[in-house]
Structure formats: structure tokens, C-alpha cells
Amino acid sequence: MAVGTGVLDVAAIRREFPIYDSHAGRPFVFLDSAASSQKPQTVLDAMDDYYATTHANVHRGVYEMAEEATARYEGARETVARFIGASRSREVVFTKNVTESLNLVASSWGGAHLRAGDVVLLTEMEHHSNLVPWLMLAEAKGLELRYLGVTDDGRLDLSDLEAKLDGARVVAVTAMSNVLGTLPPVRPIADAAHAAGAVVVVDAAQYVPHLATDVAELGADFVGFTGHKMLGPTGIGVLWGREELLDATPPFLGGGSMIRDVRLDGFTSNELPWKFEAGTPPIAEAVGLGAAVRTLERYDMRAVRAHEVAVTGYALRTLSERFGDDLVLHGPADPCARGGVLSFAFLDVHPHDLAQVLDAEGVCVRAGHHCAKPLMRRMGVGATTRASFYVYNDEADVDALAEAIEAVRRVFG
Ligand SMILES: Cc1ncc(COP(=O)(O)O)c(C=O)c1O
Fold first, then answer.
1. Torsion of CA 217, 220, 225, 230, to 10 degrees
2. Ligand 1 pocket: which of 103, 127, 156, 373 to mutate (most atoms within 8 A of CB)
3. Single pTM value for the model
4. Are residues 239 and 224 in contact, defined by beta-carbon separation less than 8 angstroms?
5. Starting from the edge strand earliest in sequence, which strands make up the sheet with 341-346, in order?
6. 1 pLDDT exceeds 70?
7. Is 364 a catalytic residue?
8. Which of 293, 371, 379, 387 is catalytic?
9. Which atom from ligand 1 is nearest to the alpha carbon of 129?
10. Which of the 8 DSSP states describes residue 205?
11. φ, ψ at 378 (rounded to 5°)
């Protein structure tokens, strides 16, 4: 039975998330934060207050309220910069989501700096967001794509890293697999990539929400993540990039705000980061993301990580002891080597059927290919069922998941 990790006060945290109140009185076990997290009242209040008291377009108005809107938007950038250890907030670009962040890098930086025959090294465990932009660029430019493989126990296969880095101009890697929970060793990969002369792009969509992040320590050149997986609203993502690389990257979208001057025969770009923020930006969403970051800072990211390791460890033990060979857990067995994402198969029940029965028991999980089709092929499956944990989950949720899997056995077994 659940004992509690003792690291985070989950009962108190849940009281901050109105979704739990709105589901009071019926079973509600939310285990799908890897797809999108729930939102605390602090985020809803910050966005409400912004709209109720301060809304105006940013970087334009000279009246006081417009200046306050700009201050809140730019304040959110400072907050995000602090959260990821960025020394300069001009290196923090607001985008729509991590998908846009990674497209920006591939299309604008890659479009300007890569030539036919150049090598881009990816991994077999990437989310489509860190694959398709490179596939598109490869098709347009004639690039060579190479892939680091995945071992049978769900780790990144680095045995041929040196050989595959030979001649590479880019290494694009996830910091945490959204399917396996695997945490590839980004720093050593980045060091080896830099030694080989490659630029390092990190998809940190599943990493930044769950582990204390310092972009300097990660050692990457570009890092993308997305607001809605870290307690923030949808519609906002982040691209952090090293200043000299962002400076050498042409604008991604053209329009208002991203220019310094426009003539009928050309334009000059604005300075960082606004060069990459064409049009009216997601102002309220940035304010919400700032509030989300402050909430995570209050929880303390080291405690968030310790809590998730404990809950994940409990889930790995509980499910394997209770279901034995009937349940296959994908990914590394050591909870310290993975994040709080648990993909599994149960008997020969299709993941969608499984998720449907779990839903009838009040347990929300994700079923499907998780936007990682090449990884599914490598694993030899078409889909998995995935439970994922965050600050508001505890061991009791794992027990509820196990009970719901018993219901699956009763229906299909
Ligand atoms: C590892 C990873 N990368 C990228 C994404 C895409 O995120 P978004 O849809 O917010 O751009 C996800 C979301 O599922 C993810 O898990």
C-alpha cells in the first residue's frame, strides 16, 4: 500500500489544482501529465489578473497600462531565464510550443548553415517534433541523417557515437524520452558532439518540467521546451539558444515586432529575442508560464525530481510484483535512470482498449504511438499504454492504477 514519498506534500499541492475539486466525489486519477499537465490556481489567477487589469499589446503602447503589459511579458522571460540558468534573457525566445522551437532551429539555423551532404545525427527515440523538422530539411537540402539506436533495455545506444559523429554538423537529441522515460546523458553527448564540430539541439520538453535545469550544465547550443507540460498554459513554448548562434540565425517568421526597419526593398531584423517573435506574442500565456515557473520553484525542483523517482520506483515495483509476466514495462528498470513516464503492455490487450477500461475506473492514461513511431517500430509494438506522474501524483495513484489493471484482467483476461 501507498506510504507517501515524504518529499512533497501532495495533499497540499492538490488543493492548489482546481481540477481535483471539479472532479470531487468521483474517481479521478490523472496520470497523463507527459501529454499535458494540470494547472494550479496561481497560473489561472495570473492570467485572469493580467486580462482583467492590464491587457494591452506589448512593445507598442506608450500609455501606462501598455507599459505594464510589456513589463509582465518581459518579466516572464526573466523568470524563465532564471529557471533554466540562462545568463541572458535575450537568449530566451518565446514560441508557440516546443514543436515550433525545434522547427525554428531546423528551418532557420539549419536552413542558413547546412548544405547538401551535411550530416545530422538524431536518435531513434525522438518525438516526431525533433524528427520531422530534420526530415523536412533533409528532403529540401539533401542532408544525410544518421541515428543513434536504442538498446533492448530502453537506453540510448552510444557504442558507435564516435563513428556516427564523424562529419556531423548537428546532433539533435531528447533529454528525456516521452515513451520510455529514458534520460540520455546529454552532457557527454554534447561534449563529444562539440569536439566533432557539431551544434547540439536538445528537446527538453519532458526534462525541464521534472528536473532542475541549467542550460550551461547541459552543454547544448539550443534547448526547446513547452509551457503546458510544466503547469503553464497551452500556446507558449521556449527556445533557449546561445547568443552567438541565435545572432547567426535568420528570422523564422516575418511580420510586426521582428524588424528594426522595413523599406519597400528590404528589412533589417530586430535584436534578440524579438527577432524571432513576429506578430502579437502569447502575452497572457507568458504571464501564466511565469507563474507556473514560480510555483515549481516554490515546490523546489530537487524535491520534484526526488518525489518522481520515489513514485516511479514504487510503480515499477508494484506493477511488476503484482502482475509478473502479464505486464511488460518498457524502459530502464532503475527509477534513478528515468523520468516519471511508464509505458507498458498488459496481456495482449490493445492499449486503446486498456485505456478505455482504465478510464471507466477513473484513471486517465494515454494510449497510442506517443508521436514516436520510429521508436514504436524499434520496440516491435504499434502502441503502448502510458502512465505519467507529476507533483500532484502519489503512491495511492499507483495503487489505483494497479486496481484498474485488475479490472482490465476481469474484462479481457
Ligand atoms: C519529448 C517531446 N517533444 C516534443 C513534444 C511536443 O510538444 P508540443 O506539442 O507542446 O510542441 C512532446 C509532447 O508530447 C514531447 O513529449
1. -10
2. 127
3. 0.97
4. yes
5. 327-329, 341-346, 384-388, 366-368
6. no
7. no
8. 371
9. 4
10. T
11. -60, -35
